[in-house]
Amino acid sequence: MNYPFWINDFNRVSNFGDYPILKKIFENPSSFWYGDNPKKPKEHMEKSIRRLLNRAQPQLPILVMYNIPNRDIGLHSKGGAKTKERYLDFIERFARGVGEDSPIVIYEPDALPHSTHLPEDEQKWRLDLMKESLQYLTDNCNGQFYIDVGHSSWLEPGDVSNLLDKVSNPKVRGFSVNVCNYRTTKESMKWSRKILKYRPKDYFVIDTSRNGQGPNDVEWCNPPGRGLGERPTTDTSHPHCDAYLWVKIPGESDGKCNGGPKAGKFWVEQGIELIKNSKES
User: pTM higher than 0.90, yes or no?
Assistant: First the structure.
């Protein structure tokens, strides 16, 4: 893959100027996350995506869809669409926003592996909704979709493949791994290759935003001592690995744990720690 990465040309942190070291994060391409914002009209997201894509031309940003009902199964990033109808409306608006452009789109971090924690009827409801949504998206816009499948210490590769069979379609590019987690690139690559044994036509991307020091055992919520990983690139070590990406924006909190603010809020101290412990430092 030859992806035309776009590095945003505006400050994404209000007090960025007070901490010039943070430039080492924002001089790299990072993702833009989309979900419903109840404080804004529904049309806002579609217009926001179009504005972003137009601003980035001829490059492309990375987009993340994060609005599945019962998102994060009630944990730190809980929320998402309230109903099936509201979610499908979100899907339609997202597709219109992307249109004829072909950005990488990470589809619903953790939604697929989290389905294994749901009662059987709720799991089926979610998987059916994901399948319907992905079919609509791939039929109605040109985004390159990667279904998130969690990380290497979560599910067995065969189980991942079985879940993907229930939601994917031939127009989906593949899957994403390690989104918002800390597993090393080497470990993530090894796990992804095992998934490929079941799905040889798929391609995948790895979130390397915070995996430079690997995980802190199984702790996933703001573990201390972590570092930035490989910078976003399409120059990977496997022909089916399309890219290393910074899907999670380094410095954004995982939630109110280990001294962090609410999920998604930029935490300056963590950003600086990630830089100081960077894989390339």
Answer: yes
Please say if 254 is a catalytic residue.
Answer: yes
pLDDT tens digits, 180-222: 999 999 999 999 999 999 999 999 999 999 999 999 988 889 9
Of 202, 207, 242, 254, catalytic = 254
**Is 72 noted as a catalytic residue in this protein?**
yes
**Is-catalytic flag, 128?**
no
Structural domains in the chain, sorted by start:
16-276 (3.20.20.40)
Which string of DSSP letters, residue by residue, matches 163-180?
HHHHH--TT--EEEE-TT
The verdict on whether omega for the bond into residue 58 sits within 30 degrees of 0, i.e. cis, is yes
- Active-site option among 36, 101, 110, 148: 110
Please identify which of the residues 36, 72, 148, 207 carries the catalytic annotation. 72
Q: Using one digit for the tens of pLDDT, what is the confidence trace for 122-162?
A: 999 999 999 999 999 999 999 999 999 999 999 999 999 99
